[in-house]
Design a protein that fits this description.
Elements (H helix, E strand, L loop, with lengths): L3 E4 L2 E4 L4 E7 L1 H4 L4 E7 L6 E7 L5 E3 L7 E6 L4 E6 L8 E10 L6 E6 L3 E6 L1
Parallel strand pairs: 2-11
Antiparallel strand pairs: 1-3, 3-8, 4-5, 4-9, 5-6, 7-8, 9-10, 9-11
Length: 124
């Protein structure tokens, strides 16, 4: 079964840092042209946090994380990373890695491959 696998979640105090990583079968990721990280906090809707175009490296960030989070892609390893710094309690959520296709109108990454999620907990 094709899947993405995340790692790097955990618990950290406010102001701390975490680095999430995600990898999968290169044969399937190769057919997608974007990867992204979504998150879902308890009682809230899932939201996109950061997106990267796998060709060219263009990045898009949610306003809530811009300047604190950095998404990167390692083409050789077919992995995507999310470096999170200056973490806040409101960043607490399950973080999901996705791979997908860029929608021409708007440029958003439409996921069609999801990871199982990794928990990030930030305490005050």
């Amino acid at each position: 079964q094709v899947k993405l696998v995340e790692s790097g979640g955990g618990s950290v105090q406010a102001g701390g840092s975490l680095r999430l990583s995600c990898g999968g079968d290169r044969e399937y990721i190769y057919n997608r042209n974007c990867m992204a990280w979504f998150r879902q906090a308890p009682g809230k809707e899932r939201e996109v946090v950061a997106t990267i175009y796998t060709s060219g490296g263009h990045t898009i960030y949610a306003d809530s994380v811009r300047g604190r989070f950095t998404i990167s892609h390692d083409d050789a390893e077919s992995t995507v990373h999310l470096q999170m710094t200056s973490l806040k309690p409101e960043d607490t959520a399950v973080y999901y890695c996705v791979a997908g296709l860029i929608r021409p109108a708007g440029g958003v990454c439409i996921p069609n491959l999801w990871g199982q999620g990794t928990q990030v907990t930030v305490s005050s």
